Structures
1.
Amino acid sequence: MKRNILNKALIACVLLAMVSCKAKKKVVAVTSTTPQVGNTVSIPTTTPDLTYLKNQLAVIKGHQVTFNTFSGRANTKLDVNGSSNDVTLNIRIARDKKIWVSITALLGIEVARAVITPDSIKIVNKLQGVYLKKPFSYIYQYASRQVNYKTVESLLVGNVMPELLTENSTVKTDMGNVQLSGTLQDLVYNLMLGTNMRVTQFNLTNTAEQQALLVTNSTFIQADNRLVPSEINILSTIKDKKIQAELHYNKVDFDLQLDFPFNIPERYTPAD
């Protein structure tokens, strides 16, 4: 039983890392309209016409972070169904190819490592000597089926999901802040952006499947001439599963030459 719980906690940690990773170098003041977890900001302006919508989408796209590689380290407090753990997440990304995650506990001991590609998820649990090899669809135990690899990659650097930047969205503005909302198949989404066009709150819900994801970015920092969020709070609920993570980043870099070491020792056995 303890082994199963640990495996699920490590998997959840890896998957949460995929849904929210940003970084830290130079702190930038937060806009006063930044919402907190559990709150949303109501923007009363009426929906703009199609030309204005296209212009707003173009502005948002122009403020998306571009990169070839990304690396970041975050002190993270993870709570899985009431069981809390403090870990450090080290994340590396090769854009459009792979996401590498290393999880370390106290004293810098690595307890798990993962590699996520557009097709697969691989995780080794070094504490228990077990591994997991699954198709990417395994993430749907923790996220909506509308999530794909590119979606995850965008969320990792604080970008807007590409699927939301379409003319099917509704845009409302107020004093430079933007609300992007609409539906994506079975999902209802609501996205808040500050005056700098960076995401301050992201909410996805699927009532029929009892799924909800709320990501709040409460502080922004400059990293290699890019504005990215730090101090990220994530709350994910799917039926009886509840996962919350608080990330505080202390290092981030873009476009460095990175390695993605990963192997499954022969003595390791498949996870339950």
2.
Amino acid sequence: MNTTPTPPWLLDLPASARLTLACLDLTSLNDSDTEADITYLCQRAQGPMGPVAAVCVWPRFAAFARAQLPAHIGVAAVANFPHGHTDVDAAVQDTLQIVQAGAQEVDVVLPYRALIAGDEEAVTRLLTAVRQACPGLVLKVILETGELKTPALIERACQLALAAGADFLKTSTGKTATHATPEAAQIMLNAIAASPAARDTVGFKPSGGIRTVQDAIVYEALTQQILGAEALTPKRFRIGASSIFGHIESVLNPTATPAAVPSSGY
């Protein structure tokens, strides 16, 4: 008989909303983004409900976002995004721009087409180069699980990312037809749990298609089940989204009219 107490956030929707907000990477990755869009994003990130964990933007906006935010809110920016090519030089240039901007986190797309084609060396080469280019920064590796059509490919992507020094495994760019799924999340979380070097340190980030607090609860529950309650902090768990922000607002302040956050594809 399981005597583990049910966590309060699973029984209480506002508690779930607060957890989701604290672990949120509030994201804007539209091709048309401007500084005005990023200013608005950063204002929402530090609103009256409390701060998000980080904002996630294009490298060209990383320095601008950093200047708009207090130190306790991180800035993440994307590399090799969204295509996941094998061009090491281009991925490193993205990464160096992020580092020089003063950001704290790099979200890099694993070369998933190369993995599908069986070229694991290309995957390792790019991820290792990016890891070396951002020492001290949090490295989230985007697996693009919706394009990896078998559990074995997803598991192998996890293993390669962990071996290259990933601090987080992330599901998706939000730019393909299939985003985060519970099935992919379970494989990723099990891969973290199975690695002695990763199980107590590496985090998990579902992204794409997470639009309500109830959507987020699915991934929070899986993370607690596989990695333990101690993993449900911003250091080990993130949600990549923008559209969920309005639902968090509606849960925490039902009488307010939520302000829209521009869609990012997440």
3.
Amino acid sequence: MRSYFKATFGLALLATTSLGLSACSQSIAQEADRFAAVEIKAQPLGDGIAVLFGAGGNIGVSYGPDGTVLIDDQFAPLTPKIQVAIADLGAEPVAYLINTHWHGDHSGGNENFGKAGALIMAHDHVRERMLGIQKSGRGNDPASPAEALPTITYHDGLKLHLNGDEVHIKHMKHAHTDGDSIVFWKKANVLHMGDLYFNKMSLPFIDLKSGGNVRGVLAAAEQALTMVDDETQIIPGHGPMATKADLAAYRDMLVTVIAAVEKAQGEGKSLTDVQAMKPVQQWDINPKAFIKGDAFVEAVYRSLQKPVHAHGERQ
């Protein structure tokens, strides 16, 4: 999940023959066309708060007298369109940027916004992965430019007092990755869950190589449910806006699938055996989903192979 510009530069280096150059140029053009067709759509959620949908992770926006706060920023080529959408809301340019985790569809625009003056914040592990200094797991290689890196990092969380609201940023341990955060606007009653929540468009993606574990995804859903009420507007990492009831159904799915896989493991069943049982069939309903049934079952199976505390070593 490296930035678009890094990926295209890498492709260019491979173009050592005229045929290779032609293929490379075609790939770059196709990628540019893909982003050229993306439309950034804004959905107001209340006074001075909105969500932006485009390509990549859903973006939260808070704006007012203290400046504009952005939660995630999708892919680098989309930055100009995101900036236009923010201006159309009547908001000033981005002053603060919070990354819910390190993946490029949520942090790909960091360099652009950092160069434009945004103060970037994220969990400690987000910066570490973007620096490419991980001893295990996946991170950026080469490291992200300095302008893309979070300059304020935290271990457990932060509280910001901006635009008449309290913004609570909380780290969720070893879930989608090892550096996930949720962001809650107390007064506005809006919760951004990043990729801890895929709503109605895909089964969850558990990035095991980045310290993810299905137990942590379930724990994050459980904790989030204690923070919200029936009026809370929930921004998932991907998919449409959600309610507490939607999140509760997602939690229940996780409980059901984890229990089924855990029971099968206790009976000595292999991963192939468990996949053949189709324990997520009733939720595996989108043929275009990013994560399909067998892939999710594998992530659950491998998560549960780890001792309960093993995935918590790197907090």
4.
Amino acid sequence: MKSLLVLFLSLGLLSACSTTRPFTMDQLNTSITAKSQASRARFLILHYTALDQALSLHVLTEQAVSSHYLVGNDQPNTVYRLVDESRMAIHAGVSSWKTHAQLNASSIGIEIVNLGYVETPTGRQYQAFPQQQIDTVITLIKDIVARHGIKPENILGHGEIAPQRKPDPGPLFPWKQLADAGLIEWPNADAVAAQLLIFQQALPDVVWFQTKLAEIGYATPKTGIWDQESKNVLIAFQCRYRQHTFDGIPDAESAALLEVITSKKKLP
């Protein structure tokens, strides 16, 4: 009798096992979506390639660096999507902005075909961006920002998030056009002029400059010494907001721009 009972129980267990299906991905229930969520892309980083289009494509697809998009300089401009936005591209490297570091994981990268600069006896000569290419870049940025909700203050150049290593997209990239397109904020010219008169009378000390740059988001030394690292950070700032002179010298005009930007005295 006991053996019959054991056999019965065994058959019952086998029967139960045979009717239970293991979970498969086609059983995934996607009918409910959480309200508390946001895009993983918090930053948009702009670069120039420093290479021609063919070499840019080769490097960004076959080597250890990549980018989500490449904007060509052909006519009309070809825009390549090289990495899906859901995946991480290797474009930012060692980088930081405010409290965020290693921005590859939280950013979308746009590479722009542009040769960058050449060294000459009178200094670096940067290559201008054709207007059609900038128009293409602005259209692409608008699309990305609309889909991911990237804030204006998080649309940045590679040189801003890595000022000790990188200069791109350089002093000829027309940031003001991005401001005119409503993509980034821009300091009020009248407010800057008013602050310039003040700082021409008395220039702030080094700590003030370092503190203001860090307040914006730049990784800035706070040593009280105007060393090469501090100079590089100010150059990155000047390449965006004061492109006629980007020498890293903490002068009255740079101070006026910093004061207006950090005090939010911008255009309505």
